[in-house]
Inverse folding.
């Protein structure tokens, strides 16, 4: 039986706070630094490697983190979660997103069905549907093939699938696996839907409406927007739309949709990329085999995340180093810096994944915690960020821990040699250089040109961004965030913080406001 | 003569620290709250309004901020800057980006020319060129019109122009002012250029190469990438490329370009959207008149930013409230939340503008400062962010000040009524609701559903996002950041923090590394 205790009640956390701090600049310099880079590295799935040599850790800190992992029962809690314990206690729900891509432990039955079987069935139904669309067996009313898929969803129904689509778009094109273009409508700003609709050929577009509850206001509004556009084009909307929803939602058995694919309450929106939420749009865009490979990569990483040995469990290690940075070293934010243009929206997805999961100030029993929990997460791809906000990262007054991601090879394979190196080599040289620049700094008599160093980073390195490595990458961060939630003793799987705004917005629309809210409403002409 | 002193040496800053803190939750509740929203508001240019009622200020705090503005000589420093004093002391340069859109004070002569005349001339040259492209007088070698413009640039040559293009794209289309599509290549990742090139018709594309020095590695590499593509298509690259650079750069008088337009050393990259850097691509995309309106809006806001009365100077007020939040209340980051899908990349531009300008830990004399300077800046459009990271903003353990932006009307004008309101009304209702939810919170016995409130925000409200309001919005933030730099006594106009990474990356590419850098290079197969 696992025990849920606050971080500051654990003896191992007190011990961790007392471990001598690492002088990163010193540790990363000279041959000692070279040894660290070789040593502080652990294998992920699909050939990826998590290297934490440039983090502010040493053998003493790592030993203390091992004790913390043990006392906080991180491996046991993950085990309880994937074996079907109700870990989302606030909403009294199981947490089963891992099961959308594999089965780590026991069979889990809920709602009268074996859940692994249920998720596999949904994936198979989607695969069948997508294959028929690609083969021209499912077409528009005129019998013509669909050429574009448009996802209508917001938050978890948008950010993850969109980031994954962008991550694989060029890879799929290069490998002749690209089936159809995907677009995304999310914002309730009517200009979002209008601009997407203006950019596509609606007669050859298939729309995926994604809402677990079937009641998300933005999504229903945008559905209506799209239906108007289809109607105005003289088309039958029900021949152009599919739904991804829960079996109990009003969308589930409606004649308004060509087909419906199901998720359930055990898959949080931000953890739903490997469920039907990501499955429908990605299978339509790239084919079901590509989506299956993506799941395979995620499942392989999940297995590694179940390893009880901290030093062989990169997600758990990444999580604990993050806790050390947040709760001992006191750094309030973290930046994610993929050196890959294809990962341009991956930081935005992680921003949701992390901040919505662990941006809590009460523990899982509803008691206030007295330590910082989830940090602010932000990021942009390198090298772009180097010419933007890296100035503050190098020379600002606050230290911001960095999470780099880099690949030895690009996706498209076209390159150019300038000054004796390819662009890909320049890209990789830059990420290597940044790690060392941040860690070691460089003294200069001119203080304005001086770099203090001591700015910690880790890097995940892989051969190439492809469906399998992307799946592994995603699972790594999902599991890291889960482990951090365990350490902070928060429920990472609910999001009560989004409710109050919804309630007040409804009041504004019903003109049931007074005080400040009334004046703001007037100023905005509502 | 202005005096440059560190913030913590100013008596008014000590006084500010001692002013009684505002209980925001209380202040924003009931009729008192309604009064605040009416009172704490000041006019910007082009009908915009800066409303700071939901910030943690009251008359006492504002009086203390007025004294700080006075003692720090903010108005005088801005005056010195626009009258041509060398404010960028580190690089011994004038700071003249305001002059690209108007002349606030004295004529300024540098490099032997009147600078206002110089910038106007460049704008006119660009207008003439763009008009000829649109009229089909400047064409490709086959005599066909160009249909796409591609900006090649990184950092300031990318983020600002890209954000402005996206901000006006749908407005221009709606108003029949859209001339040609713009694309952007920035990253040294070869997949960035390859993907853009695969998505366009190169034979009908004109490329704008933007590099002040003419030596930016990413940009030269991508130029070469594009030239290869043009050559492979049997085209003469010099008939498809223009340059935006300084007059002394190697690009300035090269036969490789159809034309060259000039900026100079007095325009920092991140402040260059209103110079030729933004001018070329925006004039080609939307026509020179639209670009002129954008400059007009910026110039009008600059004038307001020169107002000596703090309460009538929204940029200065925004700056000082930010300093109060950073240096007295101790908040380490700020989020920018435009309720407008068209501003999707505006936060990324502000991230550079702010973090690269004020992410410094030495003052303008090169001495270390002992107080926090520039915060971390991040953001995404609402309502998308509500379904993503707002959980942490509402219920996380750290307080993150918020900067909202909202418009009464959308750009495209298509809308749909669902549950008795339009999408535009829903959008506006949401931003109004969020301000009050963050400020006032809501008590709940269930601590997990409890909202503490006390989370400060401001909002800029306008009628519609168009070239003029966009110009005003941009100038507001540019000037806010400038004023904050004055208060912190840092040089907001250099960026020495980007240098070390460049130096080390060159060493990696030359295989002149040892220690940790060598091992990272090997891991990345360089």
């Amino acid at each position: 039986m696992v025990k849920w205790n606050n971080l500051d009640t654990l003896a191992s956390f007190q011990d961790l706070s007392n471990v001598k701090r690492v002088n990163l600049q010193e540790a990363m310099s000279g041959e000692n630094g070279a040894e660290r880079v070789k040593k502080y590295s652990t294998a992920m799935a699909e050939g990826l490697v998590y290297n934490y040599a440039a983090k502010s850790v040493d053998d003493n800190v790592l030993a203390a983190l091992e004790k913390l992992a043990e006392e906080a029962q991180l491996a046991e809690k993950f085990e309880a979660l994937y074996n079907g314990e109700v870990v989302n206690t606030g909403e009294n729900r199981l947490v089963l997103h891992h099961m959308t891509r594999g089965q780590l432990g026991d069979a889990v039955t809920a709602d009268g069905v074996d859940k692994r079987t249920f998720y596999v069935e949904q994936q198979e139904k989607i695969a069948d549907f997508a294959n028929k669309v690609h083969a021209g067996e499912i077409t528009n009313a005129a019998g013509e093939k669909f050429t574009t898929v448009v996802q209508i969803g917001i938050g978890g129904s948008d950010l993850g699938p969109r980031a994954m689509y962008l991550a694989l778009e060029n890879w799929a094109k290069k490998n002749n696996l690209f089936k159809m273009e995907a677009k995304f409508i999310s914002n309730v700003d009517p200009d979002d839907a209008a601009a997407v609709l203006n950019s596509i050929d609606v007669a050859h577009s298939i729309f995926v409406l994604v809402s677990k509850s079937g009641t998300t206001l933005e999504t229903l509004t945008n559905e209506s927007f799209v239906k108007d556009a289809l109607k105005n084009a003289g088309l039958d909307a029900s021949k152009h739309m599919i739904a991804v929803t829960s079996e109990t939602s009003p969308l589930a058995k409606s004649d308004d949709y060509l087909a419906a694919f199901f998720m359930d309450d055990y898959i949080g929106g931000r953890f739903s990329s490997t469920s039907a939420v990501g499955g429908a749009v990605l299978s339509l865009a790239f084919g079901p085999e590509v989506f299956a490979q993506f799941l395979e990569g995620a499942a392989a990483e999940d297995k590694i995340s179940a390893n009880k040995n901290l030093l062989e469990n990169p997600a758990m290690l990444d999580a604990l180093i993050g806790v050390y940075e947040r709760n001992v070293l006191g750094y309030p934010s973290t930046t994610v810096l993929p050196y890959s243009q294809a990962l341009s929206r991956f930081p935005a997805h992680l921003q949701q994944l992390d901040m919505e999961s662990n941006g809590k100030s009460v523990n899982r029993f509803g008691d206030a915690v007295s330590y910082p929990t989830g940090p602010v997460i932000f990021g942009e791809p390198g090298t772009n960020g180097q010419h933007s906000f890296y100035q503050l990262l190098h020379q600002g007054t606050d230290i911001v821990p960095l999470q780099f991601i880099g690949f030895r090879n690009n996706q498209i394979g076209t390159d150019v040699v300038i000054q004796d190196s390819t662009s890909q080599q320049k890209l990789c040289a830059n990420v290597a250089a940044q790690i060392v620049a941040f860690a070691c700094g460089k003294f200069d008599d001119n203080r304005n040109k001086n770099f203090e160093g001591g700015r910690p980073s880790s890097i995940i390195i892989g051969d190439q961004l492809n469906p399998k490595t992307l799946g592994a990458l995603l699972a790594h961060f999902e599991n890291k965030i889960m482990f951090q939630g365990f350490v902070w003793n928060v429920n990472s799987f609910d999001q009560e913080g989004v409710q109050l705004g919804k309630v007040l917005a409804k009041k504004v629309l019903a003109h049931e406001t007074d005080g400040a809210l009334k004046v703001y409403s007037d100023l905005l002409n509502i």
